[in-house]
Amino acid sequence: MEFDEGDAVVLHDKHSEFDGQVGKITQVVETMFGDETYVVSFDEGQEVGISPDQLDEADDDEAELDEE
Fold it and tell me: Which DSSP state fits 52?
């Protein structure tokens, strides 16, 4: 799945302190192999180099909770 800047997403990475949290795509980076990775910002920080298979689109309810 492809994401765009500004999309609300849920991160799935058991090694990340942000696992299961809703964040916002702040940058889309194309690798030299033509793949895309993402920078995702959360309330308490950010994760860099996130692949699309680690992300799910956030439900509207989840995105609204994150904005509060």
Answer: G
